[in-house]
Amino acid sequence: MERQTPIYLDHAATTCVRPEVLEAMLPYFSTWYGNASCTYGLGQASRDALEGARGAVAEVLRCRPREVVFTGGGTEADNLALVGVARALAERGRHIVTSAVEHHAVLHTARALSEEGWRVTVLPVDGDGRVDPADVDDAIEAGTVLVSVMHANNEVGTVQPVAEIGAACRRRGVLFHTDAVQTFGHLPTRVAELNCDLLSISAHKLYGPKGVGALYVRKGVRPAPIQHGGRQERGLRPSTENVAGIVGLGVAARLAAEEMESEIKRQSALRDGLIGRLLALPDVRLNGHPEHRLPNNVNVSAAGVEGEALNLRMGLAGIGTSTGSACTTGSPAPSHVLTAMGIEEPWLSGNLRLTLGRETRPEQLEAAARAYADIVAELRAASPNYRPGSPG
Ligand code: PLP
């Protein structure tokens, strides 16, 4: 199989490590290989680099550096937030609230907690994938210790009203966690504006390395560690720090913040152009909120085609796309996100996600739109069920 994908439109799945990030990381594999807990020069060089990266992440979140806990990725940050808070506050109550469209890193963690005796309320979303802050307020009860609602959805790109949700949690004295893996470095994520107490990020979604992320933990909040070992990361995440990876996250965060405003404008315009082209095709609809949407996300459904087949054919045409989230690609189950949004056949299985990045150019999107139109037409011609103009 051809391993190169000339047109990469799957930036929500992962991004390349940008050259400036790689260059900053390299010395920490060899020249500066010290353990950041050691007191001699080599160790202190690693410690300085670690604290520099912590400062860079804190700058983007507008929080104190001490409130940033480095983790082994977004999934681990989500686990630490949910399990850590649930366990720390178990005496106070054993009820948590989340939404039906969360990434599995949150949903499956909540499910694991429910198997250990916590009660979990999973909130519904509207047809665009948004949670109603009033539903959050209604779901909070005396024993609620945590609400977790993502900042933006990885599949359909819908941005949640997190500031309002966070405000409701504050009023009710309940901690609020948001999974900002898809927004950190792409949209403003100032923790005071989001009214959150905990927030997860992951480096590989913003041109940093895989396997490194962070959890913002507001001063005064103390989750229980979910791993046991040394005193690294204030005892919240024991294990010798991944210095090179963390340096990469810091540089990626700084560069993303510098470019954020211009990239939001540029990518939103490209996104809207692509959406316009795809919706001009017969029996194609947009999934996710038309306005409260990630600047780089296009998620459309075509009646009369199987999204999996379409996705494979796009790949063969040299265009990297995705059905639903990368984590569920290959699984025959329909997307839990689209299902929660009430989307039914034929739209449910005919969906495709195209996510743009900083290297995406208009001509690539034109080529992708042409390939999409051709492949959809071919698949429909081969489908016994599709009749133009009467999807379903
Ligand atoms: N949360 C969201 C919204 C994501 O999109 C992802 C990655 O796909 C994760 C969590 C998991 O992050 P990581 O791959 O760093 O574990």
Give a short synopsis of this structure.
It contains 11 helices and 12 strands. It is α/β, with parallel strands linked by helices and 392 residues long.
Please name the defining characteristics of this protein:
392 residues; Aspartate Aminotransferase, domain 1; 2 domains; 11 helices; globular; binds pyridoxal-5'-phosphate
Describe the structure.
- With 392 residues, the chain is an alpha/beta fold.
- It folds into two domains: 7-13 and 260-381, Aspartate Aminotransferase, domain 1; 19-255, Aspartate Aminotransferase, domain 2.
- The protein has eleven helices and twelve strands.
- The protein has helices spanning 19-25, 41-61, 74-88, 104-115, 133-139, 162-172, 191-194, 243-279, 307-316, 336-340, 362-381; strands spanning 7-8, 68-71, 95-99, 119-123, 144-148, 175-179, 198-202, 213-217, 284-286, 297-302, 319-320, 351-355.
- The strands form three sheets. The protein has a seven-stranded mixed beta sheet with strand order 2-8-7-6-5-3-4, with helices on both faces. It has a three-stranded antiparallel beta sheet with strand order 9-10-12. Strands 1-11 form a two-stranded parallel sheet.
- Helix 7 links the parallel strand 6 and strand 7 (198-202).
- Helix 2 (41-61) runs parallel beside helix 8 and helix 9 (307-316) crosses helix 11 (362-381).
- The longest helix has 37 residues, at 243-279.
- The protein is globular.
- The model has no long low-confidence stretch (mean pLDDT 95).
- Pyridoxal-5'-phosphate (PLP) is lined by residues 73-75, 78, 103, 105, 150, 154, 179, 181-182, 202, 204, 213, 327.
